[in-house]
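Project channel, design review

CF: Before we commit to the Histidinibacterium lentulum constructs, I'd like one complete example in the thread so the newer folks can see what an input/output pair looks like. Taking Sarcosine oxidase subunit beta.
RD: sounds good, go ahead.
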Amino acid sequence: MRYSGWRIIREALTGNRGWAPVWRDPEPKSAYDVVIIGGGGHGLATAYYLASVHGLRDVAVLEKGYLGGGSVGRNTTIVRANYYLPGNSEFYSHSLKLWEGLERELNYNVMHSQRGLINLFHSDGQRDAFARRGNAMVNQGDDAILLDREGVRELLPYLDFGQVRFPIRGGLYHPRGGTARHDAVAWGYARGADARGVDLIQNCEVTGIDVEGGGVTGVQTTRGPIRARKVGIVTAGRSGQVAAMAGLRLPIESHVLQAFVTEGLKPVIDHVVSFGMGHFYISQSDKGGLVFGGDLDFHASYAARGNLPMAEHVMEAAMTLMPVIGKARVLRSWGGIMDMTPDGSPIIDRTPVGGLYIDCGWCYGGFKAVPASGFAFAHLLAQDRPHPTAEAFRLDRFATGRGLMDEEGTGAQHNLH
Ligand SMILES: Cc1cc2nc3c(=O)[nH]c(=O)nc-3n(C[C@H](O)[C@H](O)[C@H](O)COP(=O)(O)OP(=O)(O)OC[C@H]3O[C@@H](n4cnc5c(N)ncnc54)[C@H](O)[C@@H]3O)c2cc1C
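CF: and here is what came back for Sarcosine oxidase subunit beta:
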């Protein structure tokens, strides 16, 4: 069924009886060409591009819960292409271009809103670093404007420009950055994959990976064994546990990231804003809630829920940047599990087990990567060679030390990226 404005009017006039379920609920078959483990954003996008670009339709996505119930439905929805290092820069640039055509491609409203992203700076050193980053972005073909203090004040008059500890000296403005509706991205890719024959199987946890003679032969699941020629692990925060089923030890630590939303308010924040002196960032949803978050929890955990010390830390940063937020009431907070690599950059690669592939290490920035990651992982699964935009995301860089991409310059400490 194609969606359109006319369709909505027709359904409204005929009692909304013509809508069909957006995807089927198939029983798992005993074998597939390709099995994708994980029905989050990356798994669903991979399945969609396997079918739409490479014509591979004997594909199943196995999801232990419901589609989109992981971090793809828990993030703060920021989409940007403001990376500095070669390897990351071209990949995220490609992703933003895919975002710009995504609604038309999927015939689905993902509410992509290019409202602009502003990263604030507070010292001369930070200004220099942001100028360098902005030049790298422009060099890559993306957009960046260095704003001075008055330029920031014009766009964001509600910030506290009087505070002396972290004075706002300016910001790096990325006009094509913005937000998208996270669940809709999962649903849109799921609908597109299902329509092309991919089996999306929910409540199907993978409990084992079958390996014979150094190659993968299938998976064990809570709904029975399934044979497969190729298996892709796309389980984000659970990647370490799932890869261990095939005897692999990944260079990943899982940490919790928390977010918060206030009651609905009239429009006050038109952009996405991030505070350069604390890991705090904020935007306003279309419903009016102020959506914000901050640092990762410092200890490793698989608990997809937040805790009060981190809530206090984020609220302090919020009040420092924009005291006006103190008047808003927080409605909800939640947490998601982040798959943190030692250099803060992702992995899209084959594994040492034949026929077993992995797409993980998205840290706290994997939502904006969903289109390009799905595109590149589908290419790798279908053609057995990396897509040119993702050649740098090799698994062996952590063993050899060659080709590390440490955007933050924080060294090999997972939780600091
Ligand atoms: C609070 C928060 C804020 C964030 N903000 C942003 C942001 O603003 N911008 C941005 O770009 N990124 C952001 N992120 C990061 C982003 O959400 C993640 O990097 C990305 O969603 C991870 O990829 P995914 O969607 O495939 O993961 P998920 O949605 O977690 O998908 C993985 C799936 O695998 C399934 N699974 C796990 N184990 C098994 C198994 N054994 N068998 C079957 N299925 C299994 C899980 O149930 C899950 O559905 C944020 C994350 C959080 C938590």
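RD: helpful, thanks. Residues 124-139 form the longest helix (16 residues).
CF: The first strand starts at residue 31 and ends at 37.
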